[in-house]
Amino acid sequence: xxxxxxxxxxTGNQAKPDLRRAALDHRAGLSPGERAxxxxxxADAVWAQVLATSAQVVAAYIPFASxxxxxxxxxxxxxxxxxxxxxxxxxxxxxxxxxxxxxxxxPARPGSRLLRPIGPTLGARFIADADLLLVPALLVxxxxxxxxxxxxxxxxxxPRAGRAAAIAALLFDGxxxxxxxxxxxxxxxxxxxxxxxxWTDLSR
Length: 204
Description:
Blueprint: E1 3-4, E2 10-11, H1 16-28, H2 32-53, E3 57-59, H3 71-78, E4 82-88, E5 94-98, E6 105-107, E7 115-117, E8 132-136, E9 139-141, E10 146-147, H4 153-157, E11 166-170, E12 176-177, E13 191-194, E14 198-201
C-alpha cells in the first residue's frame, strides 16, 4: 500500500506517480492555517540562512497551489539580494526573470495559471549566477533525491547551477523521507527547509 507516514517514512514499493499522489493528498489534508504557519516558519529559516551566508543572487520560485513559500518571502529576500524566479518555456526548460513584486505578475503563457514577472527574461543559463537556489519539491530523501511534479523542468535547469551553489527544497513537515526512487536524470538537492527542522543540510 502506498502512503507517507506521519514520521516522514515512505511505505511500500512505490513508483513515482504513487508517491506524487500520496504527497499531494498529504498537502491537501493541511488546513490553510497550517500551510500559512509552516510557510512563515520556512521563510524565517530561509532568511536566517541568507543572512548567514550573505547570498547575493537567489533563484527562487513563485508558489503554485499548495506549494510551500510565499510572495512575501520573495519580497523579503529581494531587500537583501537579487531574486530571480523561473517560468517554463514551450520546450519545458526554465528561463529566469527578476522578481519585482506581486503587482508585476502576468500569466507565464496565454491561458496559463502559472505566473511570471513582466520584466525581460535573463536566459536559461542565468541560474549559474545564483548563490542559493530555492526549489519546489513534493518529497525529498535524506540523500538529497528530490521528487517533483514530473515535468522535468528543474532536472534540465539544475545541472547549470554553479558547483558551490546551495540547492534547497522547501517542504512541509513530514515530506523529508528516508528514500525515493531515482532516475538517471534526477538532480539531488543539498538541503531542505521545513517548519519543524529549519535549514537541514543533506549528504549528496
